[in-house]
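Protocol step 4 of 6: structure prediction from sequence.
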Amino acid sequence: MKSDYLIVHKKVLPDYFEKVVEAREMLRRGTIREVSEAARTVGISRSTYYKYKDYVFTPSEGNACKKAVISLILSHEKGILSRVLNMMSALGANILTIMQNPPIGDRASVVISMDITSLETSVNGVLETLTAAEGVEKAGLLDIE
């Protein structure tokens, strides 16, 4: 199996996966401000929340995945972000937003949201392509919708 991702019906999963998603949504909406309170409200431990929060997502109601948010750690060298954006565009990703933090220790973190409806490969394929690129130290999926 090439992909790191599966779509699985929640009936076959432990209930704490759904609770992690519920807690993350409470935090996102601002109805609850602290992770410990959100975890307690849905009935899971903080450690369970932190262990799975970056790995459990829900698709949008009635839609296939249309947007993804990825995180990158890039070497602080001229032109690397431009090359990354060109590679993503060549793979069919439509860049929606870019958030780049100032470099620290010759590394810069970048968060990119993209429309993936016209993607010519899987999101995992995009991540593999980016990870193999010169100047990209790390690439990971933060969220998908």
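Step 5 (inspection) to follow. The chain has a mean pLDDT of 88.
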